[in-house]
Amino acid sequence: MTHKMRAACIGAALAVLCLPSLAQAYVGPGAGFAVVGSLGILFVTFFLALIAIVTWPFRAVYRTIRKRTLRRKTTTKRVIILGLDGLDPVLMKRWMKAGHLPNFQKLAEQGTFTPLATAFPAMSPVAWSTFATGVDASKHNIFDFLNRDLRTHLPLLSSTEIRPPARTMQVGNYEIALGKPSIRLMRKSRSFWQILGEHYVPCHVLRVPITFPPEKVPNGALLSAMCTPDLRGTQGSFTFFTTDHERAAAFEGGTVIPVTREGDTVRAEIPGPPDPIHKDHPVMKIPFTARIDEAAGKVEIVIGKERFTIGEREFSDWTSLPFQAAMGQKVKGIARFRVMGIAPHFELYMTAINLDPDGPAMPISYPGFFSAYLARLNGPYATLGLAEDTWALNERVIDEEAFLDLTWSIREEREKMWFNSLKKNKTGLNVVVFDDTDRIQHTFFRYITDGHPANAGKDTERFKDTMLEMYEKADTLLGKTLEFVDDRTVFFAISDHGFKPFRRGINLNSWFLQNGYMQSKNGAVDRYFDGVDWERTRAYTFGLGGIYINVKGREAQGAVERGEEYRRVKRELIEKLSGLKDPETGETGILRIYDSEEIFRGPYRGDGPDLVVGYNVGYRASWDGAVGAADETVFEDNTKSWSGDHCMDPFMVPGIFFSNRKIETRFPGLIDLGPTVLDLFGVKKPAHMDGISLFDPLAMDKRTSLRDAYFPAGVPEGLRDAPLAEVAAESGPAPPPREESPPTPAEPEDHENA
């Protein structure tokens, strides 16, 4: 075993044992750090290319024969899916009507535009998993950003499991792994692009959430997205260096490092991951020097052999950060820097340390060399699943201008990949998801929401047109993408959910504590349930959409008997929490509590929440409640920059659906996209898929409302009176008219038979 492979194995162990889990804006803990060596990547690439050239004629003949036996003949040559995370049908309609979105308007007139039923719960990892697999959460096993450890009640990342090698041995100061780490995608069922690939349909899949670690796509390529970790093993940890030592307090989502300025020079160290070779696993660090030119407003930064100069409030390019481990080994990441201030205090922001796509420490693409190919083609790019640093903005470490500069640049990287994919893969499936549409609505919704609590003490004018600008950029992207659409191409533009303002948070753990469903050992409950008396606790919540009953024999310290007591507790909570009023505003905070036994029917139902919370527009799980804390406050203002959200009742936040062809129903669901694409390519839908082809008139005759799209297997009796999404979608603030001259902002398991 080479030194690099030893480093690979030990790195994974350190992720689980040494790295802390940070609660990010999506309350996602670290996925863990597992170095997988990239020895000989160029040689392997060349060798595989040579084999492909030599064997191409034989493979072409074999593919032609197999296609005829595996697929029925269709007229579809290509399917293009443009994913625009979070675009909202209400805002879309209003800005189309106002003439701001001409490409969307034209597509709607020539083809189809309608709301798109999202998933239960209405969260990105759940929804995009439903998109990929054509099944609901109880069949794909992703119910939230977080899952629970039944032994400790500590949160786990729902999408990925990283386990260290089973055995190690110590040799002097070094620790040697006797085996390989395990990195496993926890999403179950099969993606429709895997099925297409097996039927010899070429597939390019770019940055669709919940594809880390990358799954094998026969006859295709895939680049991972949410929840790809950073080099430290978290879901994104910024670093902030400042001479203002009063700011050097604990921050969410990152580390603040106090530094001292000596004349025009600041010297400090960049913290990285733990050393995977040394037995004590010290954090590896890279020294750097910043030389300040106040007169010019510029700073020269020297990191090893890297040397670059950036102006105040200016981002650097991606910078290589090689961390030196024991025994001469290196672990490399990339990051960008921005000087936030020079005087009176020097302040330097560094993004999370992204995995280097040219030689990633963990696999982030299929084939393995695909990420390097994209880096060689277009240069370094963001690989972190949640690369737009929403938490640094929440903590006001960066401002809106810096956030937008970073977000727009990531979007440009994605565009280069996308149009390269469209040019190279001219038949089969092309699918991409753009994230800026989601991140900007999360952080700029306050600008179009009068009286939003997050506006207090913040600018409300300079960036009030940013959300419209983002929708206009999406319209431009749509127009460029449509240039690749011909009469044998079926095109979809979709979002996984819509968006609403997030004004008030609800801490259900606090409600449980006050109403006797949760008990504390000392009167208080801190984060991650520190202080809970589990033997006397009947209900708890964490994450953004679920309630869990503390069941005996399931949870390690369960208090509720299975059977009648379990059902009674659920009935009580449904009755007491459905329609829960906000005492300060008089508004309804929770529309409905859904019984999971009614809405989920798949084999993984027991891994999800016992109850799903349908928050009203304007409300969401509070920040503290999402990470297992409780106090005397149930309802509270949301004052963070993260001012818009979608983790509400799914009927309230449908996504968008555009197509260049008319579909057979006005009521499509996200769950239908996979079956539809399979049908277009003449591939039979697997029996386990719940969705239906949108071009099948017989199947679609059964759809009478969006309610049916949420429950393709049949609407539960108790939900037949649920509010319709097309009506609920009309709620929410009307965006203000735009000024004429706005300011310029500066391998998964196969469960087909389940």
Verbal overview:
The protein has 754 residues and is an alpha+beta fold. Among the domains are: 75-142 and 187-227 and 385-499 and 653-754, 3-Layer(aba) Sandwich (Alkaline Phosphatase, subunit A), CATH 3.40.720; 502-647, no CATH class. The chain has 20 helices and 34 strands. The strands form 9 sheets. An 8-stranded mixed beta sheet has the order 2-34-25-1-24-9-10-23, with helices on both faces. A hairpin with an 8-residue loop joins β14 (265-274) and β15. α7 (192-198) runs parallel beside α17. It is globular and about 75 Å long.
Global outline: globular
> CATH topology of the domain at 75-142 and 187-227 and 385-499 and 653-754, which one?
Alkaline Phosphatase, subunit A
Helix content: 25-40%
Highest-level CATH class of the domain at 75-142 and 187-227 and 385-499 and 653-754: Alpha Beta
Mean pLDDT score, rounded? Answer: 87
According to CATH, the homologous superfamily of the domain at 75-142 and 187-227 and 385-499 and 653-754 is: Alkaline Phosphatase, subunit A
